Amino acid sequence: MKIYSSDQMKNIDFETIKKYIPGNILMEHAGIETVRIIEKKIQNLSEKKVIVLAGAGNNGGDSFVVARGLSSKVSKLDIYFIGEEEKLSEDSRLNYNICKKLNLNFIKNFEELMELNEKFKYDIIIDGIFGIGLNRNVIGEHYNLISFVNNLKNKFVISLDIPSGVNSNTGEIQKIGINADLTIAYHGGKLGHFLYPGREYRGKLSIVDIGIPNIVESEDDLDDIYEIIKKEDIKFKIRNKNIHKGNAGKVVCIGGKTGFSGAIYMASEAALNSGSGLVYSIIPKGINTILEQKSTETITVPIGDEKREYFRAIDYVETINFINEIKPDVIILGPGIGREEETINYILKLLNEINDINIVLDADGLYAIKDDLAILYGKNIIMTPHMGEFKRIIKSDIKNKLEKAKLFSENYGVITVLKGADTIISNGKKTYINLTGNPGMATAGTGDVLAGIIASFVGQGYNRLEASKISVFLHGYIGDKIAEYESEEGVTANKIIKKIGECIKDIKK
Ligand SMILES: NC(=O)C1=CN([C@@H]2O[C@H](COP(=O)(O)OP(=O)(O)OC[C@H]3O[C@@H](n4cnc5c(N)ncnc54)[C@H](O)[C@@H]3O)[C@@H](O)[C@H]2O)[C@@H](O)CC1
Ligand SMILES: Nc1ncnc2c1ncn2[C@@H]1O[C@H](COP(=O)(O)OP(=O)(O)O)[C@@H](O)[C@H]1O
Ligand SMILES: [K+]
């Protein structure tokens, strides 16, 4: 499902108003649709005492329409306008004046608001303080107002378009944000509704149509496309009836060192359980015995001498020879591989040699390239960093992480799967935010499993972006199933592997 950045949304509003529908009609739609949703969702509405908080922008304008629509349907309604009348936009002023003419009660100042609340105890708060026009940190009287709302007891907070204080592009909180129970968004979801921490602030999300004609978006070919991944967007390919293991996807996992054999084991098992025909694990010989005992279907390919506990640079020759011989569809490079200097050189030498094969670069494979990013150019790479690994690579903080992941993908020609509670997948043009998964997945090895699933789907012929999208959704979906059957605490990487098949079936339904 498509979602929007604030610039895209502003542009859509602008084009609609310029060519087709006046702003005050859009505002009317936004406000009236909001009233309709409130009537549907709030029981005993006629008994409720409502305070409408209106800011100086068009979000405030929407709230004047809501105030007018709700005033006769509730037991008490007051408006607190935090702004200057002279600075209101034409559309907002129109609705402000209607509220005045209707003699709706405007609260004079913050002190009066507190007094009235003491007396009546508002039970519904309409938040029209800021919408997608928020462009700086919230301070002063706005800060105090938001803090006042968040501290109220027994209230139901409804934010118009986006909770005030949440940045609609990044989901970041601009110093303080309204903690909403329900957000009613106009025309479409915004990035800030789905990226944390904004995702936690917005409560339930309802998206309403405000009458923007379809033609506006077809005329406006958006350069960047943002989507959240829905179950119905996941399309698994039908497996060809006469395939054999040699052409059902050949995956090579490269990684492991003493103490970290589990990572490569889990990546390989995840690949197998996602449908790959053949999975090989290239590992330092020193851990071969352990891995052979654990794996039954995976073919282990030990490299180096008996005591070799980690890869050395020279091992790349043997590795490349093997790769040239078996011609895999995809290589996972990095799980459990470690950070020995020799190993880093091994990884860099390998990457220099491999040009046409798909690579999932994970874990310490990402550590190895952190000072040699040019090595990524011209290759078919999916990178799967978590936030810490990504920070190390881009050498900056991860504020505005979506934009940074998108830019990185564009600049280096890779697909970035930036893992977290709101995993972001981008090829630089198209960017997805994933909604599946839960805090139970913050446990050792779940990342290795994801790398294995992604590689498996790449190997089965899905394009890299599609494979990443499907895998991230599926991985989180399985985590959610385990949390539902057992508990979030019960989620482990091994359980995720075991449920891959069942959940693929589930998603196909
Ligand atoms: N006509 C339109 O374009 C439509 C706009 N709509 C509404 O309009 C909203 C966007 O309206 P605006 O662009 O006017 O923006 P907002 O209503 O979000 O507010 C922006 C105003 O707040 C000020 N501001 C921003 N950050 C501030 C801060 N931290 N502290 C104090 N003041 C701050 C800005 O200078 C500006 O005056 C949408 O979210 C939506 O609710 C909808 O009514 C649909 C139609
Ligand atoms: N709070 C969370 N909500 C949803 N998914 C999460 C959460 N925390 C972690 N995950 C997922 O779990 C996986 C963890 O991967 P990673 O950090 O690489 O762990 P490891 O290195 O232990 O395998 C990622 O896919 C991430 O998206
Ligand atoms: K708002």
From TrEMBL:
EC number assigned by the record: 4.2.1.136, 5.1.99.6
Pfam families with a match to the protein in the record: Carb_kinase, YjeF_N
Reactions it catalyzes: (6R)-NADHX = (6S)-NADHX; (6R)-NADPHX = (6S)-NADPHX; (6S)-NADPHX + ADP = AMP + phosphate + NADPH + H(+); (6S)-NADHX + ADP = AMP + phosphate + NADH + H(+)
UniProtKB keywords: ATP-binding, Isomerase, Lyase, Metal-binding, Multifunctional enzyme, NAD, NADP, Nucleotide-binding, Potassium
CDD domains per the UniProt record, alphabetical: YXKO-related
InterPro entries: Carbohydrate_kinase_pred_CS, CARKD, Nnr, Ribokinase-like, YjeF_N_dom, YjeF_N_dom_sf
Gene Ontology MF: a single term: NAD(P)HX epimerase activity
Protein name as it appears in the record: Bifunctional NAD(P)H-hydrate repair enzyme
